[in-house]
Amino acid sequence: MTNATARRGIDELRGHRSKMFSRSHKIARKLVMRQLEKLQLGCLRIHEGEHCFEFGENPDFASTVADIHVHDFAAYRDVAFSGSVGSGEAYMSGYWSSPNLTNVVRIFVMNLSTLDSMDQSQSWASKMALRAFSFLNRNSKEGARKNIGAHYDLSNEFFSLFLDERMMYSSAIFPNDGYSLSEAATHKLKTVCDKLRLKESDHLLEIGTGWGGLAIYAASEYGCRVTTTTISKEQYDQAISAVKKLKLDGRVKVLLNDYRELNGSYDKLVSIEMIEAVGHENYADYFRLCGKLLKPDGLMLIQAITIADQRYELAKNSVDFIQRYIFPGGGLPSTHKIMELVARHTPINLVDFEEIGHHYAKTLKMWRESFWSRIDAVRDLGFDERFIRMWDYYLCYCEGGFMERTIGTGQYVFAGPEYRVDSPNE
């Protein structure tokens, strides 16, 4: 065979491949469009160059309108074969964009049957890959450190670009629309401490330090002792530094330990949005330990992001975009599941509950605005455009979920069996 003949053969093969890819994209597009025809609530507009296709309600009357601009037909392939995770991957790759990304998420949440149908149509290979990913990221002690590090150890500098000055990476609480993110984050801390009825003589255990914001606030504002633990080295170093700088060493003890290594007895216990990293398989042990660590007359507050009760089993047995790219090994409990576990594995009882999911939607919106306002600094830290699109998708994905209440955030206050509201200690 001559070189010319070989080159001609290679060119023909490339041309054949190009036609195959083009054909596969067209098939994928047809499959996705067929799914979108099932949308009933909201209006989704798909823009392909000068062409626009509308799905759902009339945009003049729809409560929510969203636009998707397709830049590469590979987007349809990713969605058709990998469902909602594929949609996020296509966004990360720049195959599609939207001027109102949160609304895109909201429309699919409003039409959950369509979203579920798209996920159920995932290819066998895609489903198996996600299941393998989930299995490999189980939250053993070693696995938990790796999973936490994958997110929280991106760098303290990165998180400082969009969080408030206390570095609170959890839902703020806005008493009114005039509150800034910083004011609302501090108000949340006060709310937590007041619900725990913290006082100077208390020893508070915090599971999940973050960057030390709550531990420092509780010790400085309420005078109590605090023991707090994290398994993120970046967070640990930041918290240690902040505690020393404020001369709170005598009241705040920061540990670099897994929650399963804790022991002792505490007047109060708090855990803010840490249970999401525990893993479904470890929930029972987590609550059992909390019940043992809390004194019989103590109070415990857990702030948890939750999935709707009706979708808990489905979510438990699947891997979504957040688990795949943001919080490996993570998972959301439901309120029903929390109450079931507490009743079965602890002596404590619920004494107060507040749903604050609508506050989280606003918190996420502010984080995203701050993120984009500092985007040059994000790039200066070495994060590329794919990471930036991933983070943008993550923030909008969560905001849309909270706005449509498919996920929520609850503050659960539990009391030990000997706790009494009219106790002399209170």
Automatic annotation (TrEMBL):
<dbReference type="InterPro" id="IPR003333">
    <property type="entry name" value="CMAS"/>
</dbReference>
<dbReference type="GO" id="GO:0032259">
    <property type="term" value="P:methylation"/>
</dbReference>
<dbReference type="InterPro" id="IPR050723">
    <property type="entry name" value="CFA/CMAS"/>
</dbReference>
<protein>
    <submittedName>
        <fullName>Cyclopropane-fatty-acyl-phospholipid synthase family protein</fullName>
        <ecNumber>2.1.1.-</ecNumber>
    </submittedName>
</protein>
<dbReference type="Pfam" id="PF02353">
    <property type="entry name" value="CMAS"/>
</dbReference>
<keyword id="KW-0443">Lipid metabolism</keyword>
<dbReference type="InterPro" id="IPR029063">
    <property type="entry name" value="SAM-dependent_MTases_sf"/>
</dbReference>
<comment type="similarity">
    <text>Belongs to the CFA/CMAS family.</text>
</comment>
<keyword id="KW-0949">S-adenosyl-L-methionine</keyword>
<keyword id="KW-0808">Transferase</keyword>
<dbReference type="GO" id="GO:0008168">
    <property type="term" value="F:methyltransferase activity"/>
</dbReference>
<keyword id="KW-0489">Methyltransferase</keyword>
